Amino acid sequence: MHKLQRPIIYFLIFATMFVLGGIQNTKGLILEKVQTDINLDLSQVGIMVSVFQIGFLIASLVAGILADRKGIKIVMTVGTLLMILGLIGTGSSYTVAFFLGFYIIVGVGIGSMTVSVATLIPTFFKEKSGFVFNLANALFGVGMIATPLLLNVIFAQNISWRFFYIGVAVVIALILIALLMFKPNQKAVLEGQEKVSLQSVARLFKDRQILFVILFILFYVAAEAGFLNFFPILYTSLDIAGMDLAQKQSTAAYIIASFAFLFTIGRFVGGFIILKLGERRTLIGFSVFALIALVVGRIFVVNASYMMMLFGLALSVLFPTAQGIASKLTKQAGSLQGLIYVASGLGGAVVGLLIGEVSDAFGIQTGFNLIFVFTAIITILALLIRTPKLVGSSSSSS
Questions:
Q1: Are 338 and 61 in contact (CB under 8 A)?
Q2: Which among 58, 152, 275, 395 is most buried, taking Cβ atoms within 10 Å?
Q3: What is the pLDDT of residues 286-323, one digit of tens each?
Q4: What's the distance, CA 103 to chain centroid?
């Protein structure tokens, strides 16, 4: 790889993940302002969230296929242009229809950029893909933490959310400039790739190892989203001596914030753990750690609720490590990464409905127990997943 290209690749990966993390974690804050600014009702807010997610999922699958067929640079360029258009459009919208239209474009752009970065990593960092995936996702986490804080400062100065979105569009324009300077090595991009079609993508499911990874991602996201969404409800439902509702809500918020902090720290450290232990041992070890942390945390949730934070640390490395393993299972890197993000979207969508229905029927404590099931499933899948020899390499990635 040309010496000038490596810094550009690192910038594209880490800057993009930081921005994407920031946008993803400020959607709720922005929509709350939009609701009063252009008179959205709650039903319309729900529609906004749904169409954004639908746009993301569709783009994830399509962008993955196109990245394999047309190249990463083309897909990522389209994604950045859509993001810039969508953010400027939403920041300039004063009617529901225009905001909705441009908000869908933002969702499609995010999906395209996310899959592009996820394809870029195994293409140029095959041997250390798990390590780089962890660092990239750590930057995503930093974006999730830092950007809401920045947004709160902006709101405190009575600056409109519109300027925030337009400002993010400017930052993405800088990413686009770096992307235009990026000259991918055609041999690295096209080496070993076969003609990609919907049929070839469907054939990926015939590989048992690929199926295990996709299922692992689905249940992992179900466990993570289930905890983040339902732990506060569980904790406030508990009868804890000396604590009123407000105190329990405050403690639950502190635990969730600490969960996110340890989650981000874990991803920074996780990359180095992979270099030491290998991807498979890391996946198994942290899956078991997650199950133990959840069980112990639930047992002592009344008297030692802080132990629940360890669940965040345990989960932190699982998604990027699974991505790293997946990158070695097929030459269709883009298509598989697209499927991974589709699976993650489905895992996040289904868990809310499932836990909600069980909680309504049997109580929140029973509903929350489904997270134990999801975590046990990913532990079993981690034991079944094998890391193959690298394509074109005689060395095994353990």
A1: yes
A2: 58
A3: 999 999 999 999 998 888 888 888 998 999 899 989 98
A4: 19
